[in-house]
């Protein structure tokens, strides 16, 4: 499961190497808006790919043949892998220590470390790099998703005074826009309509299509895509006129959620809200923002990403509309428009033992100092100001180390429940009320960016 | 040989909202017919996109059909509790139990392609393994598309997920009982590897049983994931065109073009499965890859006449250099170059100072060792940081002072054959263009260089790049066929096609999609869409060699590039 070239690395290390110790981080990036990351996804990888007896004689044979053809010569370390099988029953002699899942960690800190536990298998540490680096994905999705949550929370607090319903504000529309079945999903929904179910009625029967939906789903919220031909006409003449009474019959628990799906998101929404206000009226909430009647809401599921969500909520609040009126659906920006560079995720060797002696190693390319890596054995601790920091060169005190051994010699030794993970990742007070904690934010910002 | 995860449940592999759509179509609908295209985007003239992507490579449907939609008739005894599936290797337990895949035999091809020695071995072990499996009771029904258990599972999940009983249990039970899980749909598609202009129909899907009108769009989610292999293959091919142009201009030929863009993307993709699909899509156009997973996908789902469709060479990474310590970079280089005397070896040289490494270590200390290497086994120097173009040019200049280049027939400089460069950092279609243009300006032939691309090749892409979209265009309600479409006032780009569709070639050789069933009239000749899937069976397949052949660069394209 390594990159092809990993196969040849066992021949490239210095002679008498007995330990390779590497670590994973989301490097600093100047100018990035994302300063902290949610650590998530290692447990999945460990259980799915690394735990238990993963090496067998058959697999060694298959790999040997395969690499013979791939490299057109014999480079595969057959003996090395056989030793894993014989000595360790096919279980990987590796130790992985990691930050607890769900924890929020500033960029530029060690997130997990990997080292071999048997001196014969120094080459294993970086062999599994390729697969472990795919951690970039769940970390990045969780981080971006949390950023969305922060934006939504901020606006909800400001325009409605509370965070009720925050967890349901951002819906995952990304299934068709991801690259494969093996992916990560979020949760619950309401019956939503797609184009085909509306357009299959034909252009002149859009009203009948809408009506059927209201009939079929009389209890529970229902979302209806309304832009197949003309969103504004649909809102004004069909929802707002021909079917107005049917809409008004619905309760808060079975509200109609109108879904635009084209055009400039912010402008379309403002226009739609204006039309709905004309047809259905609205009320003012406790902080003075306009809210549609409780049987009527909107979901914007087209063109949503971190920037557009911020823009939309700003414009809505400028026009006096509460964030309570709107839900969001996010597809590719949540699950696909991300890559390893988004958070600069990297895996680097920082310590080796050769001829019985330990040595701190690193890279420091003169052509790009942001690519410099950490040195020596690493630990993560909270300093006296309360900020998280990484201690290099083995200088950390074990009792202060927040990294926990999660995998050892083929076994997953620490499990996190979904509850624990969610608890670790929840929004903090200062993230919901940004104006109240500017000083702390500034301190955090300086700390992260090394400004003293 | 298809390898379906026994746990895959098609009833849980759709967007939630689709679960409720069977209740929303007009009453007495007996057919829903939909199609897939990479929509044209009439660009806003103020936003000029550097790369146009006028045509797309159609690839990846066969993988989806085999893996997720094809029916399985028999209970397949499979080891239920098994360590993780190392999918990029050739075999799995299923393979031990079932002999040579039948899908590779087609009427034209005759005998199936000969398997490797290991495949022969597997059939020899067959009886032993079968007995073992029976004895251990490790059976499960692997891969049947619809089973009573899966229906139950879906029913329970959706009851919780919606807090209501909306799941179409009756509809799925009907498919189970009447068709034994064979999905009553028909899919017609353009041949895999075909290069088709945007805005044309690429495949159509229609229900074949009036009771199952809802099935067509149920499978949209899983079918639309074809956007990924299509986009990787298309973006990779556009880069091949850029490389071809500059290679031709600076050397007069296209030698080694297929090794000029190497896949470095394994670690930068979102999952193992993505790696396999994406890597295979890149291999439609090129032959160099480090994403081993792609090879397994090709062998399993397409088949090739060669033992493997992709190759690589020994190469260093930073840890194998830095592990020697900062003061021992030369020892590291020397050790590694000596380990691989007779094949190309790529050595990352920027751990501390790329320019010093090129000038002093490669250029002086180890020069003797390098000059002894043959043209088949060059040292390939790898920078890995800094502005890509500037770094490449500076590296070439420095190496050029130490290893004197010659001028080729086109007047461009080429380093001696025992030394080359690979740029594998920050490479995407735009920087690739910049680098080859910059090299040409400075009179360096593209023969000197190869490229590696990771995130940009396999990950930095979305469904929006080629506007991949699946839309309903025709329904039959109350016995009457109706052409349907969407046409949102706020975005004419999102307008969809109407009626039954077909793809044709005009007399001038252009592609055209006919709507509203007009393809039935004889004027435009044969429909280029072929039925590939029918009622649970795959009825037409393509080998990877055919895919590559369909996707290769045409003479006319090369001519166009040079002018």
From TrEMBL, chain A:
<dbReference type="GO" id="GO:0005125">
    <property type="term" value="F:cytokine activity"/>
</dbReference>
<dbReference type="InterPro" id="IPR013785">
    <property type="entry name" value="Aldolase_TIM"/>
</dbReference>
<dbReference type="InterPro" id="IPR036068">
    <property type="entry name" value="Nicotinate_pribotase-like_C"/>
</dbReference>
<feature type="domain" description="Nicotinate/nicotinamide phosphoribosyltransferase">
    <location>
        <begin position="195"/>
        <end position="382"/>
    </location>
</feature>
<keyword id="KW-0964">Secreted</keyword>
<dbReference type="GO" id="GO:0005634">
    <property type="term" value="C:nucleus"/>
</dbReference>
<dbReference type="GO" id="GO:0009435">
    <property type="term" value="P:NAD+ biosynthetic process"/>
</dbReference>
<keyword id="KW-0539">Nucleus</keyword>
<dbReference type="GO" id="GO:0047280">
    <property type="term" value="F:nicotinamide phosphoribosyltransferase activity"/>
</dbReference>
<comment type="pathway">
    <text>Cofactor biosynthesis; NAD(+) biosynthesis; nicotinamide D-ribonucleotide from 5-phospho-alpha-D-ribose 1-diphosphate and nicotinamide: step 1/1.</text>
</comment>
<keyword id="KW-0662">Pyridine nucleotide biosynthesis</keyword>
<feature type="domain" description="Nicotinamide phosphoribosyltransferase N-terminal">
    <location>
        <begin position="5"/>
        <end position="96"/>
    </location>
</feature>
<keyword id="KW-0090">Biological rhythms</keyword>
<dbReference type="Pfam" id="PF04095">
    <property type="entry name" value="NAPRTase"/>
</dbReference>
<keyword id="KW-0963">Cytoplasm</keyword>
<dbReference type="InterPro" id="IPR016471">
    <property type="entry name" value="Nicotinamide_PRibTrfase"/>
</dbReference>
<dbReference type="GO" id="GO:0032922">
    <property type="term" value="P:circadian regulation of gene expression"/>
</dbReference>
<dbReference type="InterPro" id="IPR041529">
    <property type="entry name" value="DUF5598"/>
</dbReference>
<protein>
    <recommendedName>
        <fullName>Nicotinamide phosphoribosyltransferase</fullName>
        <ecNumber>2.4.2.12</ecNumber>
    </recommendedName>
</protein>
<keyword id="KW-0808">Transferase</keyword>
<dbReference type="GO" id="GO:0005737">
    <property type="term" value="C:cytoplasm"/>
</dbReference>
<keyword id="KW-0202">Cytokine</keyword>
From TrEMBL, chain B:
<comment type="similarity">
    <text>Belongs to the NAPRTase family.</text>
</comment>
<dbReference type="GO" id="GO:0009435">
    <property type="term" value="P:NAD+ biosynthetic process"/>
</dbReference>
<feature type="domain" description="Nicotinamide phosphoribosyltransferase N-terminal">
    <location>
        <begin position="9"/>
        <end position="71"/>
    </location>
</feature>
<dbReference type="InterPro" id="IPR016471">
    <property type="entry name" value="Nicotinamide_PRibTrfase"/>
</dbReference>
<keyword id="KW-0662">Pyridine nucleotide biosynthesis</keyword>
<dbReference type="GO" id="GO:0047280">
    <property type="term" value="F:nicotinamide phosphoribosyltransferase activity"/>
</dbReference>
<dbReference type="InterPro" id="IPR041529">
    <property type="entry name" value="DUF5598"/>
</dbReference>
<keyword id="KW-0808">Transferase</keyword>
<dbReference type="InterPro" id="IPR013785">
    <property type="entry name" value="Aldolase_TIM"/>
</dbReference>
<comment type="pathway">
    <text>Cofactor biosynthesis; NAD(+) biosynthesis; nicotinamide D-ribonucleotide from 5-phospho-alpha-D-ribose 1-diphosphate and nicotinamide: step 1/1.</text>
</comment>
<dbReference type="Pfam" id="PF04095">
    <property type="entry name" value="NAPRTase"/>
</dbReference>
<protein>
    <recommendedName>
        <fullName>Nicotinamide phosphoribosyltransferase</fullName>
        <ecNumber>2.4.2.12</ecNumber>
    </recommendedName>
</protein>
<feature type="domain" description="Nicotinate/nicotinamide phosphoribosyltransferase">
    <location>
        <begin position="259"/>
        <end position="536"/>
    </location>
</feature>
<feature type="domain" description="Nicotinamide phosphoribosyltransferase N-terminal">
    <location>
        <begin position="142"/>
        <end position="187"/>
    </location>
</feature>
<dbReference type="InterPro" id="IPR041525">
    <property type="entry name" value="N/Namide_PRibTrfase"/>
</dbReference>
<keyword id="KW-0328">Glycosyltransferase</keyword>
<dbReference type="InterPro" id="IPR036068">
    <property type="entry name" value="Nicotinate_pribotase-like_C"/>
</dbReference>
<dbReference type="Pfam" id="PF18127">
    <property type="entry name" value="NAMPT_N"/>
</dbReference>
